[in-house]
Amino acid sequence: MTGGGFAASSAGQEFEAKITPIVIISCIMAATGGLMFGYDVGVSGGVTSMSPFLKKFFPVVYRRTQEQGINSNYCKYDNQGLQLFTSSLYLAGLTATFAASYTTRKFGRRPSMLIAGVFFIIGTILNGAAQDLAMLIIGRISLGCGVGFANQAVPLFLSEIAPTRIRGGLNILFQLNITIGILFANLVNYGTNKITGGWGWRVSLGLAGLPAGLLTVGALLVVETPNSLVERGLLEEGKAVLRRIRGTDNVEPEFLELVEASRIAKEVKHPFRNLLKRRNRPQLIIAVALQIFQQFTGINAIMFYAPVLFNTLGFGSDAALYSSVITGAVNVVSTVVSIYSVDKVGRRMLLLQAGVQMFLSQVVIAVILGFKVKDHSDDLHKGFAIFVVVLVCTYVAAFAWSWGPLGWLIPSETFPLETRSAGQSVTVCTNLLFTFVIAQGFLSMLCHFKFGIFLFFSGWVLIMSFFVLFLLPETKNIPIEEMTERVWKQHWLWKRFMDDYHIEGNQIAGDDLKKNGHANGFDPISQL
After folding, report:
1. What is the pLDDT of residues 38-53, one digit of tens each?
2. pLDDT tier at 70, thresholds 50, 70, 90
3. Rounded-to-integer distance, Cα 447 and Cα 458, Å
């Protein structure tokens, strides 16, 4: 028996597959969900550092930023309402994920992406036209629902449609588009901040309609994944799509494996309850831990509030936005590095190398800020300011080729088909829950921890690096359907959880023998 409990070659053969234009185009279109997510992450930090936006929606914070020497530099932006503007998106996304899991499983990956696009468009209109804080928050909640559906469907879509040998690279397109979205938002914020008249923030929030439209159109144009079609009983359509995306007629071995996976999956009546079974705990533990660790690297604190953070350190408003553009560009370039290296170097090596780089850069930032940025100091010396930006870029680069993309890739490729949608739902929920926690708490933490905030996150980076070293197995170039045999059953710890897999697998095989009367004549299609 192989990963997910269905028939495949125990030798781990790779199915015949060409890298077809339809796969590349479908993946690019689907990954625009990441573009929208990234834009939402990047735009919020920029507009919250714009004086006209603060004056209209958060006058208390605006007055604090204008009063010199009264408030601590670290506490100027400490406001629960301001943090709620950013974090409400992630709380809404967390709630929407449950509905998205059902939609993705019952109706397919495409409808979930289409629903995400519609939510994004509604949220963009409400935010761009916002007249009061309530309208602004409702818009963010709509955007959050879009994030919930997109983050549920897109990583699954990319993992299922990509050939095994480039699955890692194509899956990281989602993360690459997140980084491009952040950079795009930073550039837009830098430009709109120069608009006189105080309405630049409306342009920043309204331009989110561009990636929202791309995702909606993309969802209408892409093909559904063969995994989803087979799962819903559309066998001939599934086989036809498989031929199209693989560029060959020799798809029978892969198709039979998908059909058998679907048969086993249909025997699971309660996928969320099944997730808690002993044999599924390793995948669940890894997926949940990766999402928690991804947020406790501190990356979203940097990306949400980069302009605010640089303002706190004494940069002017323009300089703060400019510095966040630089970090956004580094983010994009480093994610491209990950696309080229993830299927060559492997997941573990990227995570471990990045752990060292992130830890050192955060510790040095904390030391510099501890000595140079006091509660009421007016400025950070230019040389040190440049050095801090370089260190932040070093940190962002390490995250962008490791925890950023791999936090999404690894869970999407490790769950078997019968728990994949439920597993992805838990993954997204955990990510959004801890994104909400960090977004809601960061500015208050910055006020109380001051420079120690970077030591706090560096401590977490150390912990997660040890987790990767001892508990995360390598999944490079291993077909999703063979993870159990070739990954979990070979790991020094997780193999202990695979005992009931063997027992249940034998039970299923025994039932099949009784039905068919012989061992080798089992036709998975006839069992559906």
Report:
1. 898 889 888 888 889 9
2. low
3. 18
Phi, psi for residue 225 in degrees, rounded to 5:
-75, 145
- Tell me the domains of the chain and their CATH numbers: 21-222+268-497 (1.20.1250.20)
Q: What is the token pair recorded at 308?
A: 């605010």
How does pLDDT run across 74-106, given as a tens digit for each residue? 788 888 888 888 889 889 998 898 888 888 888
Q: Are 458 and 364 in contact (CB under 8 A)?
A: no
Residues with Cβ within 8 Å of 446's Cβ and at least 6 positions away in sequence, in order, are: 74, 75, 77, 78, 309, 312, 453
Mean pLDDT, residues 22-36: 81
Chain length of the chain? 528
pTM flag (> 0.90): no
Tell me how far apart the alpha carbons of residues 145 and 89 are, in angstroms, rounded to a whole number: 8
Mean pLDDT for the stretch of residues 377-399: 81
- Residue-level pLDDT at 172: 77
Phi, psi of 12 (to 5 degrees): 80, 40
Residue 132's Cα: distance from chain center in Å? 30
Cα–Cα distance measured from residue 212 to residue 66, given in angstroms and rounded to the nearest whole number: 35
Report how far residue 27's alpha carbon sits from residue 21's, in angstroms, rounded to the nearest whole number.
10
Q: How many Cβ atoms sit within 10 Å of the Cβ of residue 60? A: 10
Task: Please classify residue 315 by burial: count the beta carbons closer than 10 Å to its beta carbon, then call 0-12 exposed, 13-18 middle and 19+ buried.
Answer: buried
Give dist(CA 336, CA 341) in Å, integer: 9
CA–CA distances in Å: residue 162 to residues 23, 25, 175, 307: 7, 11, 15, 37
